[in-house]
Specification:
With about 120 residues, the chain is mainly β. The chain is built from 1 helix and 6 strands, in the order αββββββ.
Length: about 120
């Protein structure tokens, strides 16, 4: 019963939380370490949960491994630095953790309403 109450409270708080940032798309390279594609370099595309610089993000996407001609689907976390997101994800198809580095169109987190032209 306590688990049901906790999960209901968590789901309710997440549903009521306002969105402060828009998602964005990341394109980049990923390197696997472990699993069936261990040591492979892949070309990745991911959706990031936040388009702000200097912010932690959730990431979900796919990777193509040219060396083995395999595909993977992954999810994980990351951090946006300037226009360079860094991600640490897990490829569920190939069962391997991945480190990713890429490019995304990110926005500056500060809004200066008082500045003129």
């Amino acid at each position: 019963m306590k688990k049901l109450m906790m999960s209901t409270a968590l789901a309710g708080s997440l549903a009521a939380a306002p969105a402060f940032a828009d998602p964005t798309i990341m394109v980049g390279l990923s390197f696997t370490f472990g699993g069936s594609q261990s040591g492979q370099l892949g070309i990745s595309g991911r959706i990031l949960s936040n388009n702000q610089r200097d912010a932690f993000v959730g990431a979900i996407g796919g990777t193509y491994y040219p060396g083995t001609q395999a595909f993977g689907l992954d999810a994980g976390i990351g951090y946006n630095i300037n226009n360079t997101p860094i991600t640490l994800t897990y490829d569920f198809v190939n069962q391997s953790p991945m480190f990713g580095l890429g490019w995304a169109d990110l926005e500056d987190g500060s809004t200066d309403a008082g500045s003129g032209p």
